[in-house]
Design goal:
This protein has a domain at 30-238. The model is unreliable at 1-5 (pLDDT under 50). A two-stranded antiparallel ribbon has the order 1-2. The chain is globular. The chain contains eleven helices and two strands; from the N terminus they run ααααββααααααα. The protein is mainly α. The protein is 74% helix and 2% strand. 39% of the residues are buried.
Amino acid sequence: MAGLRPGHPFPSCTASLLAFFPHLLLALLEGTVAAAVLALSALGLSLVFGVMRVVNVAHGEFFMLGAMLAWWVAKMVPGGPAMGFVAALIVAPLLVGALAFVTERLLLRRIKYDPEATIVATIGLMFVIQQLALSVFGADAKAVSAPFTYRIALPWFGFSGYKLFVVVASIFILLAVWWVLAKTKWGLVMRVTQFDRETATAFGIPVNQVYSAVFVAGAALVAVAAVLIVPIQQAHYLMGLDPLLMSFIVVIIGGLGSIKGSVIAAVIIGLADGVISMFFSPTLASIIATLAVALVLVFRPQGLFGVEPR
């Protein structure tokens, strides 16, 4: 076969693809990190709605509080960034979970988990937590050092080993949550309570205790997500809005109350956000995500994996 003539378009196309590939790979890696953290955040919101049938508007502030507490714990614990990070990964979710426990007992239980009243109550809680964080921690952004600084050397660029750790840790936590929900007695109790509260009560299931545990678990999950991301994104008292909005987008697209749908939607939204932000702009990525929510609400209101109400 005759060789390619000088000026033939194939070599230039191949060179363009080779030059494009590293940028695409970097965008996919960054999108995977975003998807992993988003899956944890949305899972907490979806778990609360799926079992309790209430919308926690303060979900983003639990995320912000987890990040702020991570900074505080890492600063207070001696022994370097690794010890501080490990301590933050334990203490911050416990403290946020404790706040969620008090909120459920003193607020949500008193209004009997009424959906409309819960929205109003958690909106108020959102502003209270935000202003308390401003008063206690201040308005400046807080940086937290990563527990290690190892970089993976790829042929085209170096990529943070910590970011890959975030992905692996998120997958491990998601699998652990799935195991609890699918393979344990507690998971069965939560599924029964989700299906029918009256039936669960008739079988002697302490529904209020289940609600309390689920609300605490949802808050702890989003706090874990915050601790994982805070070495990458600085903590700030106003940082709760984006996780709240993105979690709502993921839960609506995946299907309200669908754990599997939330995880799959988080992966799709995270990867799309990484690619679109890299090659176009983050604003366009947000616009497309919002349009996707509108299309889902119009053509499939129950979400991609949600069950149509009977």
